[in-house]
Amino acid sequence: MKPAPFIYHRPQQLSEALDLVAQLDNYKIIAGGQSLMPMMNFRFVMPDHVIDLNQVTELNHISKENQQLHIGSMTRQQAIYSSALVQEHIPLVSQAYSFVSHRQIRNRGTFGGSLCHLDPSSEQPCFTAALDGVIEVASQSGKREIPIAHWTAMYMTPDLAPNEIMLGAKLSIWPKTHGWSFMEYSRRHGDYAIVGVAVLVNLSVASTIERISIALCGIDAAPVRLLNTESALINQAADESAIRMALGDIEKLPNIMEDALNTSDYRRHLAKTLTRRALLEAFERAKKRIS
Question: What range does the domain containing 162 cover?
Answer without folding.
Answer: 57-171
